[in-house]
């Protein structure tokens, strides 16, 4: 299977980012289009309003001037000045090529040429242009009977200002709406993402071995209910399958036990009569007894590990002092591996009389397997120590040897089931099954602790470090 991530090389926004972006973009598009409609409608309305007002005014003024010119009123310039042309506007009269204006700043040349030409050809004309850096609307009305023309230059700067303020306000509203949209997106994404976060947490818990984890129901939500149901069904099936597998291994090992006991008993009989056997018979007997011991050991280990997988192994807790616990279990282990001198033992006085709640049999198994491995692969353990960890919360148990050590690549793998290192093949008569350290890890985990291997001091040998919490709530004490 190729995951979609592998196909896509361009980094993409996460789900939450995309939701927020969608909300923000929606708000932006909506507010900008509403704003644009509002702006252009208002603008159109205001401008046409102004233009028609200007046109009316121009017609009225032109009529007044025509009458004045017809009546040959003296001081026609005063007539022009007395015209009502509206605030900020300018009236101009072209009387036979002579120009009169109500403003010094606006004269003949301020009127756009095209407008003057249209009026010259006896048409009423209008034009919007920029006069003295301000927008203006000019109207020209020819007065042919008097060989004159009237112009009204209407100032539009206040209108421009109004429209600018409107545009700024609409822009600010659009920005605020976009932010609001993004905020809503954030809230919506939190709500939408919550079930996904639940799935992810549940998956992590399951991956860490808590197979009882299920997703809470989402009643009434058809979309989520489907997801929840299929997730929970998947975990149900997974759990069932794991339990079935574990039960199978456990049952098989159990079934193998009784024939094995018979075989061991038969072997005992044969061994008691060893002297009666021929040389060849003795060799065959030795081979067989080694194999049966190995087989018995494998079945025992397998049974133990599979029972714990099936959740069937009980923990039998006792409260003991650390000093007593370590001494006893070390004694039991070295007795079984007596072809090497016993390791030196150091128990930190600060932990010696600390009481610990442990399953003694399992603790002995931890110590026993580590001591046995040291005997098998490293010329025997050289030192065992029990101290308080750096964080002062754990018992730190170290089993050290000065053997060949364990390569970096193997340091994690040796705790896997059935993993046997290269070194194990070189030992003759070694009864290992590759389950020893897996059992150590399992038993340590049952006490809430961890186990790891380090390189020994001066790069010699290996140190197996077991950390067991000193204070722990025991939830599974009554497990069956
Ligand atoms: N003290 C040690 N020194 C070197 N190698 C070790 C030591 N203890 C364990 N190993 C390696 O780890 C492997 C796994 O150990 P274990 O799980 O006890 O299985 P087994 O002893 O049955 O082989 C061994 O096969 C060996 O290669
Ligand atoms: Mg072993």
From TrEMBL:
Its GO CC terms are:
plasma membrane
Q: Which GO terms describe its molecular function?
A: phosphorelay sensor kinase activity
Domain Histidine kinase residues, every copy = 251-472
Q: Which UniProt keywords apply?
A: Kinase, Membrane, Phosphoprotein, Transferase, Transmembrane, Transmembrane helix, Two-component regulatory system
Stretches that traverse the bilayer: 20-40, 165-187
Q: Which reaction does it catalyse?
A: ATP + protein L-histidine = ADP + protein N-phospho-L-histidine
EC top class, in one word? transferase
Q: Which InterPro entries match?
A: HAMP_dom (IPR003660), HATPase_C_sf (IPR036890), HATPase_dom (IPR003594), His_kinase_dom (IPR005467), HisK_dim/P_dom (IPR003661), HisK_dim/P_sf (IPR036097), Sig_transdc_His_kin-like_C (IPR004358), TCS_sensor_his_kinase (IPR050428)
Q: What is this protein called?
A: histidine kinase
According to its UniProt entry, this protein's organism is freshwater metagenome
């Amino acid at each position: 299977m190729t995951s979609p991530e592998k196909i896509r090389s361009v980094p993409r926004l996460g789900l939450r980012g995309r939701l927020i972006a969608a909300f923000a973009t929606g708000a932006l598009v909506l507010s900008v289009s509403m704003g644009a409609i509002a702006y252009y409608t208002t603008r159109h309305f205001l401008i046409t309003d102004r233009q028609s007002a200007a046109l009316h005014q121009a017609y009225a003024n032109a009529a007044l001037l025509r009458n004045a010119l017809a009546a040959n009123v003296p001081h026609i310039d005063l007539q022009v000045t007395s015209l009502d042309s509206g605030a900020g506007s300018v009236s101009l009269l072209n009387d036979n090529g002579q120009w009169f204006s109500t403003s010094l700043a606006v004269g003949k040349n301020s009127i756009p040429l095209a407008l003057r030409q249209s009026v010259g050809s006896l048409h009423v004309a209008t034009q919007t242009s920029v006069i003295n850096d301000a927008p203006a609307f000019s109207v020209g009305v020819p007065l042919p009977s008097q060989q004159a023309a009237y112009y009204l230059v209407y100032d539009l700067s206040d209108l421009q200002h109004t429209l600018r303020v409107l545009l700024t306000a609409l822009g600010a509203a659009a920005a605020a709406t976009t932010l609001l949209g993004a905020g809503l997106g954030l809230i919506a994404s939190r709500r939408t993402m919550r079930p996904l976060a639940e799935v992810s947490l549940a998956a992590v818990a399951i991956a860490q071995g808590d197979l009882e984890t299920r997703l809470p129901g989402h009643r009434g939500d058809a979309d989520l209910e489907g997801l929840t149901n299929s997730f929970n069904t998947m975990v149900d099936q997974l759990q069932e399958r794991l339990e079935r597998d574990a039960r199978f291994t456990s049952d098989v090992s159990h079934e193998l036990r009784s024939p094995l006991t018979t075989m061991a008993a038969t072997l005992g009989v044969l061994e008691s009569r060893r002297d009666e056997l021929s040389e060849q018979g003795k060799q065959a007997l030795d081979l067989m007894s080694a194999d049966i011991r190995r087989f018995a050991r494998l079945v025992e280990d397998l049974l133990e590990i599979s029972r714990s997988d099936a959740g069937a192994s009980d923990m039998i807790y006792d409260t003991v002092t650390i000093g007593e616990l370590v001494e006893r279990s070390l004694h039991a282990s070295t007795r079984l591996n007596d072809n090497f001198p016993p390791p030196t033992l150091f128990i930190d006085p600060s932990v010696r009389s600390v009481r610990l709640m442990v399953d003694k049999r399992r603790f002995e198994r931890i110590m026993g397997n580590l001591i046995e491995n040291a005997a098998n692969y490293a010329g025997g353990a050289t030192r065992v120590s029990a101290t308080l960890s750096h964080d002062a919360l754990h018992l730190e148990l170290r089993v050290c040897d000065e053997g060949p050590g364990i390569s970096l690549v193997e340091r994690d793998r040796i705790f896997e089931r059935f993993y046997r290192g290269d070194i194990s093949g070189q030992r003759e008569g070694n009864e290992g099954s590759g389950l020893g350290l897996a059992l150590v890890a399992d038993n340590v985990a049952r006490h809430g602790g961890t186990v790891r291997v380090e390189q020994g001091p001066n790069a010699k040998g290996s140190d197996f470090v077991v950390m067991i919490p000193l204070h722990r709530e025991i939830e599974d004490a009554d497990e069956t």
